[in-house]
Amino acid sequence: MLFNSIDFALFLPIVFILYWFVVHKKLKYQNFLIVVASYVFYGWWDWRFLSLIVFSTLVDYTVGIQLAKTSKEKKRKVLLWISIVVNLGFLGFFKYYNFFLDNFITAFSFFGNKINPSSLNIILPVGISFYTFQTLSYTIDVYKNKLKPTKDFIAFSAFVSFFPQLVAGPIERATNLLPQFYKKRNFDYNKAVDGLRQILWGLFKKIVIADNCAEQVNYIFSNSDTLPGSTLVLGALFFTFQIYGDFSGYSDIAIGTSRLFGFNLKQNFAFPYFSRDIAEFWRRWHISLSTWFRDYLYIPLGGSRGGTRMKVRNIFIIFIVSGFWHGANWTFIAWGALNAIYFLPLLLLNKNRQHLEVVAKGRYLPTLKEFLSIALTFSLTVFAWIFFRAENMGHAFNYITQIFSLTTFTTPYYPGIGKAIPVVILIPLFLLIEWVGRDEEYAIAHLGLEWKKPIRYLFYYGILISLFWFGGKEQQFIYFQF
Question: Annotated catalytic, 326?
Answer without folding.
Answer: yes
